[in-house]
Every structure is written in structure tokens, then in C-alpha cells.
Amino acid sequence: MRTFLRASTVVLLASFAECASLLHAPRVPSLALRQNLRGGFSLVNPTNTKETFLLEDSRRVCVFEDDKAISAAVVETVKSVGKAAIDKKGAFSICVPGGSIVKALSALEKDALDFSKVHVFFCNERIGEYKCYKGAMESFIERCGIPQSQVHKVPEGDAVEVAKAYEQLVTSQPESVISKNSAGMPCMDLTLIGSGEDGHCASIHPNSAEVKATGLNKVYLPISSDSKQAITVSIDMINSSKHVIISAAGPKRKDMVATALRVDAHDWSCPCSFIKGVDTTWLVDTESIAGFHK
Questions:
Q1: Distance CA 219, CA 240 (A)
Q2: How far apart are the C-alpha atoms of 293 and 262, rounded to whole Å?
Q3: Which of 130, 177, 113 is CA-nearest to residue 150?
């Protein structure tokens, strides 16, 4: 009887532990939901890939020769998603970060889209420096003639108040620009995300309060410290986008990519692993994918 009771106690404790783990696990769109919403079809189909494959959780991985080929795929994706959005609803909303993924848009032709119908938002921004805004203006906004009223710059001020104001700006857009899902989260047509060697994305860093906000249905998050005032899009907001592109090139990202692409990866130390929107595509090169085994 004692043996039976001890065994029963172990089983119950294990069950409680599992339940506690599930309760605290961050929420991402379920596999069934993602497959259903995508319908097995995506507008993200770069033509210059060396290899394309689907993970068990429906994320797509496109492998390219190098970072130049990834940049070409980013431009191709913006064109295809943008044209489809404008044809369907008369507007195209795109959310951009800083860095190489937005620099790739310097190759976007002036006649690639009806840029009078493009609305630009920002994934993250350091208040006062505005590197993301300046990078986007230089790369494609000014050259392509996007109306300044449709370039939604992050405002000045305290990070907490700025995050609230920018969230209000995003959530108050007309349905033709940014629709909402059943949870009330705004759905960008396309979100572009770069990645860091440490697994960070936008300004969501490993083991930070921002990554641990995943599953709380936050839209934008403030980052406030003595050294900086900034805001960042949340993982939930990224995952609410209709299409998500995340790029990762070079050998220094090999270990991060291998971790992030694991189907069971939900690790605070790798924020990129939580990006699992309804149509999420990783753009990697032969060096960054080298550590991942299908």
C-alpha cells in the first residue's frame, strides 16, 4: 500500500507540474489555426531559393546562397504581398525594423507598387535617435514617394506614454489599412523582422520583460532605463500579422537558428523561437542553416 501511495503521489506531482508549465507557457497561434488561416497557400514564395521546406508547426524555411539572395527575396516578398493587399483592400500596411532587412528595400523599384497606398509602421525605435525611421526613409520611403502622412513615426516622450500612443495609432487605423483578428489584435499585412546572434528580434532581448510578455496580447511595449527610452512591438503583435518574414544570415547565427527552428522551442533565451504567425517564413542562408537538422 505504501509503495502504491508513493507512486500515486509522484504521478500527481508530475501532473501538477505539467499543468503549471502549461499555465505559464506563452501562447502562440496553434498549428491548426495557422494551417487553417493560411489554407496551405502563401504569397511569400521567393523564386531564388536553393531549398524550401516546412516545419511540423507550418513555419516555412527558405534557404538561399547568401545574404544578397536573402535581400532580393525580401524585395520580392514586399512586392507580392503589397500588390495583393492593394488589389484586395486598397491599402498595404508594412511594419519594418532597422538593420539589413530594411536596407534591402533600397532595391525596391519606384514603380513596384502603388506607393500612394502604402502605410509604414515601425517594429521598434529608440526614442530620440530614430534609427529605424531614418533607415527606412533613406532606403525606400523618400525614393518611392510614400506620402509622409502614411509614414507613422514613433513620437517623442517617455517610453511608457509613447508605447501607449503608438499602440493607439496602430489600433485606430481603418480596417482597410490594419484589420483586427478575433482577439482584437491588429494585423499588419506584412511584418519584417531581423534577428540577432543571441536570438533577439526587434528590441525583444533574451530573458527580458518584453519576451516574457508573450501571450498577454500586448501590442507595443515600453523599454525604459537610465540608458535608453525605447518601444518595441510585442511577439503577440508580430504573430498577429498576416505575413511575417524573419531573416537570419551568416555563420554567427547558426546556433540561434538551430534553436529557434526546433518545433518544441519556447525558450525565453531565444525570443525568435516564439515567432509563429499564421504565415511565417524564415529566410536563411547556407551558413546560418548549417546547424539545423531536419
A1: 10
A2: 9
A3: 177
| Measured distance CA(67)–CA(245) in Å, rounded | 14
CA distance 99 to 136: 9
Please state, in angstroms and rounded to a whole number, the distance separating the CA atoms of residues 186 and 40: 23
Virtual torsion, Cα 119, 239, 275, 18, nearest 10 deg? 160
Per-residue cell: 263 = 518545433
Cα 69 from Cα 75, distance rounded (Å): 10
Please identify which residue in the block is written with the cell numbers 527606412. 136
Mean pLDDT per 10-residue section of the chain, whose length is 294 residues: 42 38 45 42 78 94 96 96 97 97 96 98 97 97 98 97 98 97 96 97 96 96 91 98 97 97 87 96 97 87
Exposure string for 257-289, b = 16+ CB within 10 A, e = fewer: bbbbbeeebebbebbbbbbbbbbbbbbbbebbb
pTM higher than 0.90, yes or no?
A: no
Strand partners, 286: none
What HEC string does 147-170 produce?
CHHHECCCCCCCHHHHHHHHHHHH
Sign of CA dihedral 111, 116, 118, 122: positive
C-alpha cell at 232: 518595441
- 245 residue type, one letter: I
Helix (H, G, I), strand (E, B) or coil at 220: strand
What's the rounded Cα separation, in Å, for the pair 144 and 202? 24
- Provide DSSP, 224-246: E-SS-EEEEE-HHHHHHSSSEEE
Burial of 13 (0-12, 13-18, 19+ CB in 10 A): exposed
Q: Spell out the residues 6+ positions from residue 104 whose beta carbon is closer than 8 angstroms to its own.
A: 70, 71, 72, 74, 75, 139
